[in-house]
Amino acid sequence: MLGSVVATNTFSGLQDCDFARSKCAYRSSCYKALHSYMVGCADVLAGRTTKCPFACTRALISLTSTEYGLSLSTCDCGENEFCRLSKERIEVCRPEVSHAIADDTVVSCSVAKWICAADTLCSTALDFYHRLCRPMFHGRKCTPRCNNSLAILDRQEKATKLKDCFCDGSEDFPCRNIRKNTQRLCYGKHDWDEDFHYIPLTTPKTDSGSSAVTCHSLRNNLSTFHPIRDTGHGGGHRKSLDEFGEIKNLLRRLCQKPRSSYDNYDEYIDYL
């Protein structure tokens, strides 16, 4: 039922909305986006407003930018009257959302961040970037680990819109300062115009033509996220084995390691 309310069209032969919702609910990033949608769009779905609130727009952008969230936008309501009514009401949000997720649309950095955060791999890479680039954020220096984290982020499909996003003042982070410091400290562009919105996320290639970022350096970055087996006794900040799975998939994807290289937790730790 929850998943069905975000459907925007009903065509014969499409996936049943209840089934689409179940597929979304079993994936953490999609489930979180779906929950945000249910909360942020409650007034629209209940018919209490005919305008699309900011929170609803944000939630819909995040949800429809995921593979399983997008399937919810085209699922078949069948005879579910609540689903069909909800589809009609949420149409007020569709133009802005469709524009934001279009491939050729340049969006604000807030929107670009929402799109990335809704994807497991991109969200993990963005977290690395936030953790490893704090000195750069404060205008001190761009460390090799920070520089490598930019390369990790740039490899993610859902980070594409971060490359040319613009700061519009709606961000919950110091957008202009971060962008300026990235250019000045990581790329040596001291004359960079902060009013110009384009920022590449990775450093240029070396003179030899090969990437300056190696799998070894990426593994060093990822090693700061060692998963900790949860003994059930609490205490400390623990990474679940589910998150470990997400991280190992990211490392495998970036460095093109065979699946057999990470058959178990101990092999992963040895590899790092």
UniProtKB/TrEMBL annotation:
UniProt key word Signal: yes
GO annotation, cellular component aspect: plasma membrane
InterPro entries: GAS1 (IPR039596), GDNF/GAS1 (IPR016017)
A Pfam entry, by short name: GDNF
Protein name as catalogued: GDNF/GAS1 domain-containing protein
Subcellular location: Cell membrane
Species of origin: Caerostris darwini
Lineage top rank: taxon: Eukaryota
Keywords: Cell membrane, Glycoprotein, Membrane, Signal
GO BP: regulation of cell cycle
PANTHER family, alphabetized: GROWTH ARREST-SPECIFIC PROTEIN 1
Span of domain GDNF/GAS1: 109-182
